[in-house]
Amino acid sequence: MVTITFIEPDETQKIVESTLGLSVMEVAVRNNIQGIAAECGGQCSCATCHIHIEEPHFKITGAPVDDEEDMLDFSDSRKPNSRLGCQVTVTEELNGMIVRVVGDE
Questions:
Q1: Distance of alpha carbon 15 from alpha carbon 45, whole angstroms
Q2: pLDDT of 44 strictly over 80
Q3: What pLDDT does residue 103 have?
Q4: Is 49 helix (H, G, I), strand (E, B) or coil?
């Protein structure tokens, strides 16, 4: 199991455990994390799972590419550490990751 800390838009922190191989969006939805609407169900077509990944884990996940990059371009809350939760797969290397939920998309 991997532990992820979600910081919801109202600054509430929730620490959850995740199974390997799920997307960060799936983990958020399964744990009722506020601010993750996941309207497209993980198809990278809505940006309602926009998150900011804190260092050092952002370096592990890497920068967004292709369709994800295009979706994030529409966000007023985009930062250099922005990702879509549906495009980040939980791996052992992400244990202890801190994720800030944007929640305004």
A1: 27
A2: yes
A3: 83
A4: coil
Give me the DSSP letters along 82-95.
EEEGGG-B--GGGT
pLDDT for the residue numbered 96: 98
- Strand pairing category for 50-53 and 97-101: antiparallel
Element (H, E) at 52: strand 50-53
Domains of the chain are 2-101 (3.10.20.30)
Angle at 66 (CA atoms; ends 61, 67), nearest 5 degrees: 100
Report, as an integer, the average pLDDT of 3-19.
Answer: 97
- 59-73 mean pLDDT: 94
**92 contact partners, CB below 8 Å, separation of at least 6:** 2, 20
What is the CA 83 to chain-centroid distance, rounded? 6
